[in-house]
Design goal:
By secondary structure, the chain is of the alpha/beta class. The chain contains 12 helices and 9 strands. It has one domain: TIM Barrel, CATH 3.20.20. The chain has a 9-stranded parallel β-sheet.
C-alpha cells in the first residue's frame, strides 16, 4: 500500500475532513499542460490526484472525458508519457498522492509488473483500472504489493453484498464507490439512497470510501462528505479547462478546485519554484 495514501487518509480522519480527489486526462488539452494542471489541482486543494491514461474506448466515461481521451490520443499520449508527466510533476514539487486511472489493455501490452514498477519509479501511488475485476487481477495485485502500490477497486449501487466482500478484499487504501449506474459526467443532483449504498459497503470493509460520478459542485462535495471519506470530481475539471482560452486552463482548474473543495484560501498557483 502506498505510504502517501495511508498518511493522507489518516490525517483526514484525525481532522474529520472530507478529502477532495480531482481528475484530469493526461495530455488534455495539450500534453504540455498536464504537469501544470496537476500542480494547479494540488494548489487549489486537491488531496489525492487522479491522472487519466488515455484509451481508445473508455466505456465507463461520459462524453466529456471521452472527448478528452480522444484529443490526448490524437496527440500521441501513451502510458510512457503519463509516467513521464508524473515524474516531471514530482520534480516540480508535487506532494499529493497520484492515482493512475485507466483501462487494462495498454497495461497488459506493456507488461503488468513492468508497468507497476515504472509507475512507482515515476512517483505514482496506485491505480484505478476500470475494467479489471479483482478475480482476474491476481498478477497485477501481486505486482502492486511487491512495489508498495495501491489497487483501488470500484463498486456500484448494483453490486451484490456477496460481491462487495470479494471486491473489498482486493483493496488496501480505499474503495471507489460509483454513485450511479452509468458513465461519468456532471449531474444536477446526486441520487437518493447513497447512505444506504455506502452503508452496505462499510459492512464489508473498514477502509475509507470515496464517492465519484456526478459530483461537480460544493454542495455535492458536502453531500458526499456526509456518507463518504472522499469526493471525486472528473468531468467538471475537464469542463473548467474547456471554459476559456487554453493558455489559462491551469489557473481556471486551480480556482475551480479551490471553490468546490472548500479550500478557497489554498493559495495561488504554484510554479514549481521556491518563493
Amino acid at each position: 500500500m502506498s505510504q502517501r495514501l495511508r498518511e493522507t487518509f489518516a490525517q483526514a480522519r484525525e481532522t474529520g475532513r472530507t478529502l477532495f480527489v480531482p481528475y484530469v486526462t493526461a495530455g488534455y488539452p495539450r500534453r504540455e499542460d498536464t504537469v501544470e494542471v496537476l500542480l494547479a489541482m494540488e494548489s487549489g486543494g486537491g488531496d489525492i490526484l487522479e491522472l487519466g491514461m488515455p484509451f481508445t474506448d473508455p466505456q465507463a466515461d461520459g462524453a466529456t472525458i471521452q472527448h478528452a481521451n480522444h484529443v490526448a490520443i490524437q496527440q500521441g499520449v501513451y502510458l510512457e508519457d503519463c509516467l513521464a508527466m508524473v515524474a516531471q510533476a514530482r520534480e516540480q514539487g508535487l506532494r499529493a498522492p497520484v492515482l493512475l486511472m485507466g483501462y487494462y489493455n495498454p497495461i497488459l501490452a506493456m507488461g503488468e509488473e513492468r508497468f507497476v514498477r515504472l509507475a512507482r519509479e515515476a512517483g505514482a501511488d496506485g491505480f484505478i483500472i476500470v475494467d479489471l475485476p479483482p478475480e482476474e487481477a491476481s498478477d497485477f495485485l501481486s505486482a502492486c504489493r511487491e512495489h508498495d502500490m495501491s489497487f483501488v477497486p470500484l463498486v456500484a449501487p448494483t453490486t451484490a453484498d456477496e460481491r462487495l466482500a470479494v471486491i473489498a478484499e482486493a483493496a488496501d487504501a480505499f474503495l471507489y464507490c460509483v454513485s450511479v449506474t452509468g458513465t461519468t459526467g456532471t449531474r444536477t443532483e446526486l441520487p437518493p439512497g447513497l447512505g444506504g449504498f455506502l452503508g452496505r459497503v462499510r459492512k464489508v470493509t473498514g477502509l475509507p470510501l470515496a464517492l465519484g460520478f456526478g459530483i461537480s459542485t460544493r454542495a455535492h462535495v458536502e453531500q458526499a462528505g456526509e456518507v463518504a471519506d472522499a469526493a471525486i470530481v472528473g468531468s467538471a475539471i475537464i469542463a473548467a479547462i474547456d471554459s476559456g482560452d487554453v493558455d489559462g486552463c491551469a489557473e481556471r482548474v486551480r480556482a475551480y478546485v479551490a471553490e468546490v473543495s472548500g479550500h478557497e484560501h489554498a493559495g495561488r498557483l504554484r510554479t514549481g519554484r521556491d518563493e
